[in-house]
């Protein structure tokens, strides 16, 4: 087994007033050569956008971009004609492919929105851009990891991604124990704690800590407190 630990307070940080963001991996003004990616996972940004703030229209290509609101609502518009509000409990994915422009704004003029912006390097380049969004009620993941993003047809209801990757969300009661088996031998698992505290093997993770594991078949979990956890089961190479 190999591992890499990213404690919450070790992340890159920028605060532009309207945007307060923490970067697990190198992004924008934050550059750390030891934090470029975890397999095909390229960006994991924890963004807080103030009321009325947001990202004006900008381009992307050949990247799988996932947005997961944690608190508040996010307004999305893109050059494919999609205009959507992404709410807490929703998961959105945009395959940028050959190229797309989009904007993301806080849907509220007064209250902040906190969301994860995650980039995954694509399996196939230059595909036709596509958009998908799905709601995942919290009660469906009580003491289990529910697939919310996947390229596997058996993950019914999960939004499709152009990569060998599966994202799962879990809401774990204090004291609950479980095991997660990786989906393929050449995959790694990146664990990101959204709330609470969990024990992963011999490592204790707190809110916004990240842990990457690879060259391993299965991972054991024990919730030290009520916890919300995001798992990213990803290919370790393109």
What does this structure look like?
- The structure is a single chain.
- Helix content is 0%, strand content 55%.
- It has strands spanning 2-6, 12-15, 19-23, 41-49, 54-60, 64-71, 74-78, 83-86, 90-95, 100-106, 113-120, 130-135, 145-150, 159-160, 165-172, 177-181, 187-195, 198-200, 203-205, 210-214, 218-223, 227-235.
- The strands form 4 sheets. Strands 1-20-17-22-15-13-14 form a 7-stranded mixed beta sheet, with no helix packed on it.
- It folds into 2 domains: 11-135, Jelly Rolls, CATH 2.60.120; 138-235, Jelly Rolls (Sandwich), CATH 2.60.120.
- It starts with a strand and ends with a strand.
- The protein is mainly beta and 238 residues long.
Biggest sheet: strand arrangement: 1-20-17-22-15-13-14
What separation lies between the terminal Cα atoms?
20 Å
Helical fraction equals: under 10%
CATH overall fold name of the largest domain: Jelly Rolls
CATH superfamily of the largest domain: Jelly Rolls
Question: How would you characterize the largest beta sheet?
Answer: 7 strands, mixed
How would you spell out the order of helices and strands?
A: EEEEEEEEEEEEEEEEEEEEEE
Gross morphology: globular
What portion of residues belong to β-strands? over 45%
CATH architecture of the largest domain: Sandwich
């Amino acid at each position: 087994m190999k591992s890499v630990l990213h404690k919450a307070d070790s992340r890159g940080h920028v605060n532009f007033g309207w945007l307060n963001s923490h970067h697990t991996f190198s992004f924008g003004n934050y550059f750390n050569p030891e934090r470029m990616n975890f397999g095909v996972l390229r960006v994991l940004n924890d963004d807080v956008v103030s009321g009325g703030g947001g990202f004006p229209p900008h381009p992307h290509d050949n990247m799988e971009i996932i947005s997961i609101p944690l608190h508040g609502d996010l307004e999305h518009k893109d050059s494919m004609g999609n205009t959507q509000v992404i709410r807490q409990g929703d998961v959105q994915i945009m395959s940028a492919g050959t190229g797309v422009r989009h904007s993301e704004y806080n849907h509220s003029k007064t209250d902040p929105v906190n969301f994860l912006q995650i980039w995954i390097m694509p399996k196939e380049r230059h595909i036709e851009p596509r958009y998908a969004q799905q709601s995942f009620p919290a009660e469906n993941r009580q003491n289990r990891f529910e697939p919310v993003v996947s390229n596997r047809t058996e993950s019914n209801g999960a939004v499709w991604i152009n990569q060998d990757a599966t994202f799962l969300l879990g809401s774990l009661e204090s004291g609950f124990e479980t095991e997660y088996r990786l989906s393929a031998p050449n995959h790694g698992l990146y664990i990101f704690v959204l709330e609470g505290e969990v024990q992963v093997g011999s490592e204790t993770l707190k809110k916004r800590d990240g842990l990457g594991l690879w060259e391993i078949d299965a991972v054991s979990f024990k919730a030290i407190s009520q916890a919300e956890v995001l798992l990213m089961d990803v290919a370790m190479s393109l």
